[in-house]
Specification:
Elements lengths: L1 E12 L12 E9 L8 E2 L2 E3 L6 H13 L2 E3 L2 E10 L2 E11 L1 E3 L8 E7 L12 H9 L4 E8 L8 E9 L8
Parallel strand pairs: 1-7, 6-10
Antiparallel strand pairs: 1-2, 1-4, 2-3, 2-9, 5-8, 6-7, 10-11
The chain binds 8-OXO-2'-deoxyguanosine-5'-triphosphate.
Length: about 180
């Protein structure tokens, strides 16, 4: 089974009084438009597969740096997602969020970064299951879920069949 990570950097957006911008204060999340590999052409958080000997947190930090050039710190565990394909466990994904980072998001070969207000996340251009768990992650809740896909490899061309999802879970192992 593949072990992978996702990281969702968050920042507060406040209206600039001087420009007469009357939008409400909101949180924005840093998404990427993935340019290659699994989920190509879709939006996601920065992330990817664990390398040998790496902890999930180390992986999330490395992938965020490699994909968008942002140095993230103080990652908070927000979710554990299991993706099954035709009844077999395919990928286990650790989900993090953070408000601590240095640098400016910069495009790479793999990803085009974009700050998006959390109530404007483009779920119609993401993995089909994301609308079920990502809103909770962006609102500060924790999730554990299993998402079942059918139809054979690759995972991003399989059909999303059904799921189980729990909110407000605690993660004992701090991974
Ligand atoms: N948001 C979301 N992410 C998912 C789902 N399923 C799934 O594998 N992912 C994530 C886990 C990983 O962060 C990412 C896939 O890993 P990756 O980006 O390293 O895959 P890749 O094939 O491009 O790998 P590579 O060429 O860069 O080695 O997609 C899903 O249903 N929703």
């Amino acid at each position: 089974m593949i072990e992978a990570t996702l990281c969702f950097p968050l920042r507060e957006w406040t209206p600039d009084e001087r420009t007469g911008d009357d939008r409400e204060r909101t949180d924005e999340v840093l998404l990427i438009e993935k340019r290659r590999g699994l989920g190509e052409g879709w939006y996601n958080g920065p992330g990817g597969k664990l390398e040998n000997g790496e902890t999930p947190r180390e992986c999330a930090v490395r992938e965020t740096r490699e994909e968008v050039g942002l140095a993230v710190r103080n990652l908070e565990k927000a979710g554990e997602l299991t993706f099954t394909l035709d009844g077999d466990r395919h990928t286990f994904c650790h989900v993090y969020r953070t408000r601590s980072f240095d640098g400016e998001p910069t495009p790479s070969d793999e990803a085009r970064p974009e700050w998006v207000p959390i109530d404007e996340v483009p779920y119609d251009r993401m993995w089909e299951d994301d609308r079920l768990w990502l809103p909770a992650v962006l609102e500060g809740d924790t999730v554990a879920g299993e998402f079942r896909f059918e139809g054979g490899e690759p995972l991003d061309e399989a059909d999303f069949a059904d799921h189980d999802l729990e909110r407000d879970v605690s993660f004992e192992d701090r991974s």
